[in-house]
Amino acid sequence: MASTRRRKGDSRMIRYIVLGSWALFCLAPVLWFLSIGFRPRTEIITPQPIYFPTFSLDAWHMIWSDWPMAAYLRNSVLAILGSVVIDLVLAIPAAYSLARFRYRGREDIGFYILSTRMMAPAIVAIPIFFLFRNMGLLDTIWALMLIYAAINLSVVTWIIRSYMLDIPKELEDAARTDGASDLRILWEIIIPACLPGIITAGVIAAIFAINEFLFTLLIASTKNAYTMSVALANFTGGSDGVIYNAIALVAFLAFVPVFVVVVAIQKHLSRGLTMGAVKG
Predict the structure, then answer these.
(1) How many distinct structural domains can be found in the chain?
(2) Exposed/middle/buried for 232, CB within 10 Å: 0-12, 13-18, 19+?
(3) pLDDT tens digits along 123-134
């Protein structure tokens, strides 16, 4: 009995050591990137390697005092959350229609929705610029919300639709027998049942929106609508050259919220990706 417990303890210890080593290996590039943000610029651009770098808050003071980083962060959060809300409001009923109702051209509509993601963004950059200019939405958070939502709507719709296909139709038939309408079935049965898929689609849309640069740079012409992705470009030119420590620090600040959200909802995220997004 004691030997069995000892073997289990040793096995658990080995497991923890292996997992801890793997976690440290995965986090090492992120930690190294963060260390660049807290190093003096002279140590970063020196041709000789420095094995024991010094600690400096120059980049931290620069991004908060010389640059309106708080405004950039606020613009990013508002644009991304707004686009995700728009995507979910439009994608959930669209996915329900494609997954449950039968009508002529349903498969063609579903393929067309997905095919919009295959189009190169640069093709529609100029028309979108003139569209938002005529609407008076250039250099606004609303424009960023709309363009992010338009870019990611097809992916969100397809993921949620794929997940809805796994829900048994008997649940809906029983609800209809009790007199429930389609809208009530969608709100009280379908949405709670496919909540992991909805969360998965929302997180993926948020990640894609964070990484969007072309349309953000095209629409946000001043600091009123600059996001974190565009803010990084401010440290790559000018009379000061490339400010590596500021780039590393801003990139880390943009990475942390996504990392925290993914870790917090990893159960829903993994379930949504494995059970819904791979079906057709």
Answers:
(1) 1
(2) middle
(3) 888 888 888 888
